[in-house]
Amino acid sequence: MRKHRLILCIALGMLTVVLSTHADENSSASSPTTKPGLAHLKIEIVDLRNTKGQLVFGVFKSADGFPTAEKKSVYWQVLKKFDSKKVTFEVDLPPGRYTGSILHDENGDGVMNYNLIGVPVEGYGVTNNPKPALRQATFDEAVFTVPAEGITKQISLQYFR
């Protein structure tokens, strides 16, 4: 009888260890890295020519306001100081279609500056990195999907002078 109880105790102990290990594996594999219902968007900004001024970053859900209207963005951040030529912005958003834009506002006045013939004198870029020569990138050229598991994108800045 004692032998049977010992075997039963050992079997129950092993079962408990197996079940708790299995539960731990499942909970860590399915635990969200962001708030429930949101996906993590990470945007890496590359090709900065210097660390002067500020970076103005916006995320947009529609073409209305893209790429410069803060009030029409779903996320807006101004980074007043940065000490690297590669900067990362992160935000949690509902999965869906978005665009991202970045302005390297070298003089810190909050807007894109142009020369006398209308060519930008500060760096800018949008997601998907379209580089049209004589016009602004469109929403459709910059749109991408943020899946439930999140995504990392890269914006390469463009300078004309």
Can you characterise this structure?
It is a single chain. It contains 2 helices and 8 strands, in the order H-E-E-E-E-E-E-H-E-E. The chain has 161 residues and is α+β, with helices and mostly antiparallel strands. It has 2 domains: 1-31; 39-156. Strands 2, 3, 5, 6 and 7 form a 5-stranded antiparallel β-sheet that branches. A 3-stranded mixed β-sheet has the order 4-1-8, with no helix packed on it.
Short description:
With 161 residues, the chain is of the alpha+beta class. The chain contains two helices and eight strands, in the order αββββββαββ. The protein has helices at 2-30, 139-142, and strands at residues 39-46, 54-60, 75-79, 87-93, 96-105, 123-126, 144-146, 151-156.
Which range best describes the helical content: under 10%, 10-25%, 25-40%, 40-55%, 55-70% or over 70%? 10-25%
> What general form does the structure show?
globular
Q: Number of helical runs?
A: 2
What is the domain total for the residues?
Answer: 2
Main sheet overview: 5 strands, antiparallel
Uncertain segments of ≥5 residues (pLDDT<50)?
Answer: 2-32
Category by helix and strand content: alpha+beta
What characteristics describe this protein?
2 domains, five-stranded antiparallel β-sheet, globular, alpha+beta, three-stranded mixed β-sheet, 31% strand, single chain
